[in-house]
UniProtKB/TrEMBL annotation:
Catalytic activity: 2-(N(omega)-L-arginino)succinate = fumarate + L-arginine
UniProt family annotation: Belongs to the lyase 1 family. Argininosuccinate lyase subfamily.
Name recorded for this polypeptide: Argininosuccinate lyase
GO biological process terms, semicolon-separated: L-arginine biosynthetic process via ornithine
The protein's Enzyme Commission number: 4.3.2.1
Keyword terms, alphabetized: Amino-acid biosynthesis, Arginine biosynthesis, Cytoplasm, Lyase
Pathway(s): Amino-acid biosynthesis; L-arginine biosynthesis; L-arginine from L-ornithine and carbamoyl phosphate: step 3/3
Taxonomy of the source species: Bacteria, Bacillati, Actinomycetota, Actinomycetes, Pseudonocardiales
PANTHER family in UniProt: ARGININOSUCCINATE LYASE
Annotated GO CC locations: cytosol
Amino acid sequence: QPVALWGGRFASGPAEAMAALSASTHFDWRLAPYDIAGSRAHARVLHRAGLLTGDELDAMLVALGTLADDVASGAFTPTIADEDVHTALERGLLERAGAELGGKLRAGRSRNDQVATLFRMWLRDAARRVVIGTLDVVDALVAQASRYPEAILPGRTHLQHAQPVLLAHHLQAHAQSLLRDVGRLRDWDVRAAESPYGSGALAGSSLGLDPEAVAEELGFSTSVDNSIDGTASRDFAAEFAFAVAMLSVNLSRIAEEVIVWNTAEFGYVTLDDAWATGSSIMPQKKNPDVAELTRGKSGRLIGNLTGLLATLKAQPLAYNRDLQEDKEPVFDSVEQLELLFPAIAGMLGTLTFHTERLAELAPAGFTLATDIAEWLVRQGVPFRSAHEAAGECVRVAEGKGTGLDELTDDELAKIHSALTPSVREVLTVEGSVASRDARGGTAPARVSEQRERLVARLAEH
Ligand code: ARG
């Protein structure tokens, strides 16, 4: 006989299709350990409010302990008749503590304040796992940067050759954005660390309970200031969904580059066999599936965020059953990321970069033209004319079919009187890179300082 939590005013049980629509244990069972932790804390405040005797509290905690063990071992599982995780666990408690004692625990709480609290707890733990996974990816990027500290990369804007940079500089740029994602999750946690327990259905509790004590026991920094907000708001879930969607977009941008770098046309990298796949028909293929799945899953995480926002947008306060739709998208985002992290870290960490090819391509497309202009500025030429003269160098070199460094002394002097042969100092990729030595720039010394700061930040975590 199913134990509904609200039998009293009903003459019959729910229709089968009603129950099927309503059921959520196939996804909210993840919250079971948090639900039991909440019940323990709640039992203690009931005791302190004089609503459970000391003996009753002890018996309740023993029963909850057995239930927790049985949930962990799989001996206790939800049935199709259990509407949700809370219903199932109440049945489990009644079976272990007896109906008399077990029936006392629900006083002063509602599934509305429970679910809002447990979802926050799950997300806060998930955020910690996501941070660890992200840091593993950052580690892989920084390890590659240290493996190739001085290798050159043709830096691009608009995907066109722009200016040469250090490969390490570029890899570290990705590390920076991922560390901001980590920062976002930590900032989020400060706001998420408020417990709605004690809000009841929406109006709070009349039983003299202590929401702050529950909050503290459950690892929150405080309890919510407003019980209506505590049960109705899900911006904590949406903000989390944004933080992880942004993270997945940052991972997708890395992935996109690996895919491009791995083409025959670019030829920048070779993927390790362990992190590539073959084709069932074309024997020569070695495909960047990890990167493609990363790029693909970012679309899924964006969808999870927008789906959740759409679920929330027209809900009046306080709790509505629509809110049951809040959990699956966010659970899914976390689960997809947990699949991705080890694969991305593995793929990135084992990439072989073809540094000779990278160096060879770096000056292509007259990427040192800006260096000519800036060299002229250092000789006192206004940038406007310097830019003009450097542009003319490009035009002449292009006409001859040579590089900028092959312009003759005469050709240079004809373009601008200040263009003496010593301009060739900056017409090497190494010279160009070394000259960009202000904070944040691509000069090897600056890039290795950046890397030291990254390593220090990784060590903080
Ligand atoms: N299972 C619901 C959820 O996930 C919580 C139950 C609240 N149900 C209710 N009828 N008030 O949001």
